[in-house]
Amino acid sequence: MRDHPSSGPGVNRAASPPRGEERRRWQALAVGLVAAFMTLLDVSIVNVAVPSIDRTLGASPSDLQWVLSGYALTFGLVLVPAGRLGDARGRRNAFVVGIALFTLTSALAGLAPSPTWLIAARLLQGAAAGLVNPQVTGLIQELFHGPERGRPFGLLGATIGISTAIGPLLGGLLIAVGGEEHGWRWVFFVNVPVGIAAVVLGWRLLPAPVRREGAGARRLDPVGVLLLGVGVVLVLLPLVQREQWQGLSRWLLVVAGLATLGAFGFWERWYARRGEPLFDLELFRLRSYTLGSVIALVYFGGFTALFFVFTLFLQNGLGYSALLAGLAITPFALGSAAASAFGGRVVNRYGRPLVTVGLLTVVVGLGAVVLALRFLPDVPAPLATALPLLVAGIGSGLVITPNQTLTLAEVPVREAGSAAGMLQTGQRIGAAAGIAAVGAVFFSALTDSNGDWSVAFRDSLLLAVGVISLALVAALLDVHRHRRTRR
């Protein structure tokens, strides 16, 4: 793996940048954060629009499943190649093309006259989102150095937390304003003016690519792209189609996908001896990158599933509107946003123990949600769960941002995009697997309890807490090992 003088958690810049350059860095970061917010918001905002889409377009259950999961599928598929593209050809170019495509496909989704049209637009929209996101993380690695990365990563973590949690609320508001029948179209149209502004500002403010000629130019490893793409699709497809594909045979695709990813690893190792691979496997020799990737994969498996089952419980089980269901999740979003900004500033001081505290806080907060619903049956669920969700959100903010900062701290800048893409691919796979597992427990418990939504939510939430606890165990083992090494 190639070293970079500015990579690593303890490196400071020799001198402060001029004031104009400093302002331009933060302006470029702001554009990137807006783009990240838009693309991540579309993971969850569409959930509350499903009933309206069903009524307007006459979509089948399979169509609706593809509208929701097709975005996540192509999002995860594109991340690593997109990160490498930004590393090799310039992050500004990849960012602007990605945002332009995302804006266009958002408009096409809003104009959809049929389910097939909407599904196609969502697949392309997900690919565009996957093209954009690694550029944002790579941009932070490129523009900021050493400990000063903590604050921008804190802002990115707050963006991730808010966009994930506030999606149902914003979707409910847009449907309430646009009407029950066609309000879902505004869920997509809202991206258009923001996307146009991001294209213009991104081209003006993001740093121009540095041209490399001859031996300095980087190839894109098409065989690696193909193997990784096929492997990710085979792993994700049975997970995102969990409601439509029944039987154990679907899991054979996961086995085939893992085998393909193994072949990808062998190819990358072989290709690295002859050129620059799609993803440098030497990054996994960095303990910080490997551990952080594992924690992210496992944590997103439990964290993302929370919103899926909670929304089902509130809307289908208790009869709340999409807007009220979204409001019920707002305490988590607020706690996550505040703690992410704080965590980004102090992560260089406390390191991995901060992530451990965050994971423990999430487990305690979600456990308190279960207890609140059990012992406060006469209190409306959104009120009973507000404080526990706030606590869990604070914990989440201390997990996502610090873990991302620590994971990427030692990654060379020239590998920043592909490293961030692989990290986010793991998060997408973890989220899909978590929703599949937690959702299976939810619907199974609903059937076994003769339609008791409270029991179904409790059992599925306990599984999500168990998954997050696995990430907590990994973080605790790392802290213990680090202390023993210091002694």
Describe this structure in words.
With 487 residues, the protein is an all-alpha fold. The chain is 78% helix and 0% strand. The protein has 17 helices and no strands. The two termini are 29 Å apart. The N terminus is likely disordered.
**Structural Rg:** 22 Å
Largest sheet: none
Total beta-strand segments: 0
The level of helicity is over 70%
Succession of helices and strands: HHHHHHHHHHHHHHHHH
**What separation lies between the terminal Cα atoms?**
29 Å
- Coarse shape: globular
Mean pLDDT: 82
List low-pLDDT spans: 1-15
Strand content: under 5%
Structural class by secondary-structure content: mainly alpha
List the defining traits of the structure above.
disordered N terminus; mainly alpha; globular; 487 residues
In a few lines, what is going on in this structure?
With 487 residues, this protein is an all-alpha fold.
Topology (SSEs and partners):
Layout: H1 19-44, H2 50-57, H3 61-89, H4 91-110, H5 115-143, H6 150-178, H7 183-189, H8 191-205, H9 222-240, H10 251-272, H11 287-317, H12 322-350, H13 352-375, H14 381-384, H15 386-408, H16 416-448, H17 453-486
Helix pairs in contact: 1-5, 1-6, 1-8, 3-4, 3-5, 3-9, 3-16, 4-5, 4-7, 4-8, 5-16, 6-7, 6-12, 6-15, 9-10, 9-16, 11-12, 11-15, 11-16, 11-17, 12-15, 13-15, 13-17, 16-17
